[in-house]
Amino acid sequence: MLPRSTSNDSFLVIRLSSLGDVLLTTPALRCLRKTYPQSHIDVIVRERYVELLRGNPNISSVIPLPEPADRKTIRNVAETMESRYDTVIDLHTGFRSTYLRRLLKPERALIYHKRRLVRWLKVRLKLDLYGDEFSVPLAYLKCLQPLNVKDDNLGMEWQGALLQKDQFLEKAKLAYPSEVPTIALCPGASFASKRWPVENWCSLAAELLKENFNLWIIGDNSDKTAGDQIRSVNPEHINNFCGLLSFAQSGAALSLCNLAITHDAGPSHMAAAVKTPLVAIFGSTVLQFGFRPFRIPHRIAEVNVTCRPCSHLGFDRCPKDHFRCMKDITSEHVLQLVKDLLSDISQ
């Protein structure tokens, strides 16, 4: 049995990466704070992701894990934390988080269950033993049940992004609000098998412009080439912000949009965290892995092909060399999902 928690306990939450996974912790962090309003709650993330939690009122402090985040770095950080925390909550459960947790030797440790075997069976044998659809943010909350933390039935949050609206508008040289509705196009994802072909994005952009939408392309520097290609459809009415914005400024931009179109990737959770409805395009991955947009109006674009899912992360190319999971999703289908979603949220 775990030791009983008190209102004066101190907590360390570990979720080192990545973009979407860190934002998906925000419901659990909020509910933990509601249960322990007087406690000290710290979160440790890799240095590049600190910005995602900056300004979150449910956190006492965000601790950066410096790069290269190797054993030596983790040991050094652990030495500064010795005996500081009563409870360590590992929402990462990877090599680095496990090593850090064991170095800290807390009185109490809670560990998020990733259901690795069930995921492996789904990928390798196409055997679905998930039962009810798995949800990563709900699994984070379940990890906190021994602390009597209850789900408040609210969504994600990203206060730091909402505070960056003026900075975004100044950098983008835009006036707001606009009389013309704006849609964010987010063509990026870490792996090629999770990215819709650029020519499909271009076709979709052309159709959206016919519907009189402003289009903002949002992504990091690796998405700039794709963004330039999409913008070439109509440079006068499409803005490409890829590589120009910080995480928080990108979140601010998304918060000003009427809708976002993303992949199964970080930008989908960025949009959800700032309460922007979205259409998410799923290719080599599936909803059972737990990354459905969380408690935000959305639609999913996907096709059923027998080789899905081929990975829980993605590949640099389609293992079958046909890429039907993405190529068979047409721009007309995504456009219809956009129209349906906008119609629903306007009612």
Account of the 3D structure:
This protein is an alpha/beta fold and 347 residues long. It has 2 domains: 10-155, 3-Layer(aba) Sandwich (Rossmann fold); 160-346, Glycogen Phosphorylase B (Rossmann fold), CATH 3.40.50. The chain has 14 helices and 11 strands. The chain has helices at 19-23, 26-35, 71-81, 95-104, 116-125, 136-143, 159-162, 165-172, 198-210, 224-231, 247-255, 266-273, 324-327, 331-346, and strands at 10-14, 40-46, 61-65, 87-90, 108-111, 182-185, 214-217, 238-240, 259-263, 278-281, 298-301. The strands form 2 sheets. A 6-stranded parallel sheet has the order 8-7-6-9-10-11, with helices on both faces. The chain has a 5-stranded parallel sheet with strand order 3-2-1-4-5, covered by helices on one side. Helix 10 (224-231) links the parallel strand 7 (214-217) and strand 8 (238-240). The radius of gyration is 21 Å and the shape is globular. The N and C termini lie far apart (49 Å). 44% of the residues are buried. The mean pLDDT is 95.
